[in-house]
Protein: DUF2905 domain-containing protein
Organism: Ottowia oryzae
Amino acid sequence: MIRWMIVVFLALMLISWLTPLLQKLGIGRLPGDFRFRLFGREWSIPLTSTLLLSAAASLIARLL
């Protein structure tokens, strides 16, 4: 179980580091991506971006 916690932690760290780069590319600002401010912090729920990246990863996996 500790391995999964480490993997999740590392994945969240990687995502947080890549967020500015992905936003420059337009990921996270597509129609269907929700952004709101709550308790003085900006929150993002990237539904459309998640579907788009998942479809791209699936296509790449099938081609390999």
Remarks:
- The beta strands are 33-38, 41-46.
- The longest strand covers residues 33-38.
